[in-house]
Amino acid sequence: MTKKLLAETLGTFMLVFFGVGSAVLMGDKIGMLGIATAFGLSIVAAAYSLGSVSGAHLNPAVSFGFVTAGRMSVGDFISYSIAQIIGAILAAFVIMIIATGKADYSVAANGLGQNGFGEGYLGAYSLSSALIFETVATFIFVTVILGATQDGAPGAMAGLAIGLTLMAIHLVGINVTGVSVNPARSIGPALFVGGKALAQLWVFIAAPLAGGAIAGAVHAMGLTRASA
């Protein structure tokens, strides 16, 4: 288990470092398409390098989906989630340190790739829009992960399928919430930004967990599972 938890910490660090880092350090140069690509490629990298160790969940919502699908214990879910959150916090801290090396950067003024919604945040979408998007997008994401990693699926393609799905989700939703679909990814930056980011953080914990849980339950019912 120790190796699995270290892999989850490192993998989530990679996800946040590449994804959130691309938004904070290069967002004005690469735009939303570039940010979406960075998130997708980070999952591909983690899946193929660490997937054989821990399954490369990198996301409490994914792990929770595995619980409701009957493929993970609650105890392991808690351990995985703690490791994932630690990885995200470490990555957000490293990104912040790098960003502060630029003279005109400050967390208060420029942010740290935090998720959000409402007035003053990207497309200024409402709370209901944020909740719906995060729940539905996470449901789709976890459904793909459960399907791509089930017995009988073409395992060599799983990492690519999952990474491309995350990229597609970002292409749809960056302007809505910045895209979480991952409580750990949201917790990391929000802890350093504080204020509104922390006040809105519950959305990016509750909605992804709900979406992941529904995906797992649907999979357990056999509706998205390969026939024996």
Summarize the structure.
With 228 residues, this protein is mainly α. It contains 9 helices and no strands.
Walk me through this protein's architecture.
The chain is mainly alpha-helical and 228 residues long. It has one domain: Glycerol uptake facilitator protein. Helix content is 74%, strand content 0%. It has helices at 2-54, 60-68, 74-99, 107-110, 127-148, 158-177, 183-193, 195-199, 203-220. The mean pLDDT is 95.
First-residue to last-residue Cα separation: 29 Å
State the secondary-structure class: mainly alpha
Percentage of residues assigned to helices: over 70%
Mean pLDDT: 95
Rounded to an integer in angstroms, the radius of gyration calculated over CA atoms is: 16 Å
- Our estimate of the beta-strand percent is under 5%
String of helices and strands: HHHHHHHHH
What CATH calls the topology is Glycerol uptake facilitator protein
CATH C-level label: Mainly Alpha
The number of distinct β-strands equals 0
Structural domain count: 1
Query: Uncertain spans, ≥5 residues at pLDDT below 50?
Result: none
The shape, in one word, is globular
Note the total helix count: 9
Q: CATH superfamily membership, which one?
A: Glycerol uptake facilitator protein
CATH architect. name = Up-down Bundle
Biggest β-sheet strands, sense, barrel: none
